[in-house]
Amino acid sequence: MLKQLRHLWHVIRRLTGDDAYEQYLKHHAAFHQASVDAPPALSRKEFFKLWQDSKWKGVKRCC
Amino acid sequence: MMNKNLKLIVWLLVGIVGAYAVAGIALNRGESINALWLITAAVCVYAIAYRFYAAWIAAKVLVIDETRATPAERLDNGRDFIPTNRWVVFGHHFAAIAGPGPLIGPTLAAQFGYLPGTLWILIGAVLGGAVQDMVTLFFSTRRNGRSLGQMARDEIGAVGGTAALVGTFMIMIILIAVLGLVVVNAMKHSPWATSTVAATIPIAMFVGIYMRNIRPGRVLEASMIGVVLLLLSVWGGGWINQHETLRGLFDHDGLPLAYAIIVYGFAAAVLPVWLLLAPRDYLSTFMKLGTIILLAVAIVILQPEIHMPAVTQFIDGTGPIFGGKLFPFVFITVACGAISGFHALIASGTTPKLLMNERNIRMIGYGGMLLESFVAIMAMIAATVLEPGVFFAINSPAGVVGKEAVDAVAKINSWGFAVTVEQMEQLARDMGETTLFARTGGAPSLAVGMASIFGSAFGRHLLALWYHFAIMFEAIFILTTLDAGTRVGRFMLQDMLGNFHKKLGETSYTPSVILTSSIVVAGWGYFLYIGVIDPNGGVNILWPLFGIANQMLAAIALCVATGILVKSGKLKYAWVTALPLLWLVIITTTAAYQKVFSTDIRVGFLAAADDLAAKLYSGVLPPEKAAVAPQLIFNQHLDAYLTLFFVVVLWVVIIDMLRLCLRYLAGRPVRKLSETPHEPSRLVENWVRD
């Protein structure tokens, strides 16, 4: 039961983008830490700005 | 083996129950029918279509390949290309496609009775809308998430691409105008509705600032605060409604409210997204999902009786809400609940960039549309549980039934639908409104329907709160579509202007932003203004125009899909998209022809213009009507040309597609398929690693 609730919470956070920053950090660690001169990860605030601005390019809502 | 037999039996049962329910609603000629019949019929039809037709399309027509890497896997950049769990993609996709259309269309189509609209919502979605969404999603996924316009250009030719672009732009203008009109009609002389809708703006801004600066990225937390504030604003609106002086501040005619929406639309297009659009979108998505689930639960608990007849006499074209016969106008009016061209824009572009595996295409593309269609069924139920007399009293414009309550009631009674002035006054008092006569546009009648369903399920004394909650819920995502649409229109215009003058194409260049936003807002603002001053309510003109434009865009998407199928050597399966395409071409062309050339002044634009001009010159019009007549005459002509333009665009794309198919079949060279080459997938779908 508790496991299912936790799973649901995961889904909700993923759906709403609440965990987008954590996902980004994971992606960053996995793909961009290979070389020494890779740029450091963005801060939560910087990332959220970028994420929100890129999300609203193009058709996002319909009739 | 046993298991297989069991499955077969279960599906046979679903089929029998579904057939029984569909036959039940279709053949019922009794007093009334329970809403559960509609729900049962819908669920069974969807289940069978999803299990068999969609699976067959996925396996045989599209030949979905689970081992093929999707664009999200190949181009993963952590931002727009992200392999995402299928339920999450489904959520995003559904939130994007489900707008106010499937709520308004069925409500208006209920003037023909519950049966025609319901049948088209089911058949249209299963054979048309869901197929369109699914194949578009598939083709875009195989092309790195390219947009419908780009695919049309790559696969058919420059003409098709341009037509898709222009079509999208025009549909946006008409759509926003009609949505604006719906909100204006819901707020007209309703201090409660107006103050609640007004309060959503600062609430959204607060949530925006909270997410951006106070607690960056805490989306859930901010949204929850926003939802609580929204609910408080519904309650606060009731308080304002009781207050002597505050009441006056929010009590307005249609025209000032229309101007307010126009100013708001411009501001929303120019302001940064994070301040208004993005937070409003979160709030509207939460409200939308919450309300739809609540409505479904309430219908199942309450099992309301449907009071509207299966078919009304208005199938002959004399309906008060919009003019026009059952064929083709029920198809044009239901629009998004059965098939929506706009979905092709979401299914190409955004969603394919998130797909982890091609096998999810059936669930997201086909399944997403089925859920949208289910929302349309619920809207149909909410409209038809009302007494038909009440339904027509709310939705008939004053220009048709008369301004005075007594005249309106007499007219509606003469159609054979019982309603009294006292009944309407009592209903208005229950809902906390001064009047519910001639509240056209579908939102108020849907809100009354929802309030009576919620009221009976969760407490009758709260009717007025439920009514205004429903109005707020509709308004908030209508305004989201309005904001987002204006912005998309602006981007498209900037893109086009960028071809002539490079600087104008920069999305952050302020003069260009102001110029293009003004053009887009002026475009829909004009149609909104005319809709408000039109004594016949404006909905009669704008909704069919929107329906035609939307179905035309769907036809363009199906053209692209059919062209690709033929070019891929799948001629024998091309009927999957060609059949709905053929049907859409028949209904849009017929509807357009009638809208332009019909001699019925409630259908034909030109006839209406001539009739009004004749009345104006012979001096029979009262002064207030004579004052606006020249504008209305001009507008009818403009609408006629616009409709012709839509049809020409559609036929150009069709002919281009047919030319391409014939060339291919004759073995002559055609544009190559733009599909990206096969790359094996290395992803295993296992998203709970964290």
Query: What kind of assembly state do the chains in view correspond to?
Result: heterodimer
User: Helical content of chain B, roughly?
Assistant: over 70%
Q: Look at the helices and sheets of chain B and give the structural class.
A: mainly alpha
Q: Structural class, judged by helices and strands of chain A?
A: mainly alpha
Gyration radius of chain B, rounded: 25 Å
Number of domain modules of chain B: 2
What is the topology, as strand order, of the major beta sheet of chain B?
1-2
Could you tell me the mean pLDDT of chain A? Answer: 83
**In total, how many beta strands of chain B?**
2
The level of helicity of chain A is 55-70%
**Main pleated-sheet profile of chain A:** none
Low-confidence parts of chain A: none
Give a brief outline of the structure:
The complex is a heterodimer of chains A (about 60) and B (about 700). In chain A, about 60% of the residues lie in helices and about 0% in strands.
Describe the fold and architecture.
The complex is a heterodimer of chains A (63) and B (690). Chain A is mainly α. Chain A contains three helices and no strands. The radius of gyration of chain A is 15 Å and the shape is flat. Chain A starts with a helix and ends in an 8-residue tail after the last helix. The mean pLDDT of chain A is 83. Chain B is mainly alpha-helical. Chain B is globular, with a radius of gyration of 25 Å. The model of chain B has no long low-confidence stretch (mean pLDDT 92). In chain B, helix 8 packs antiparallel against helix 22 and helix 10 (219-242) crosses helix 13. At the A-B interface, helix 1, helix 2 and helix 3 of A face helix 4, helix 8, helix 9, helix 10 and helix 13 of B.
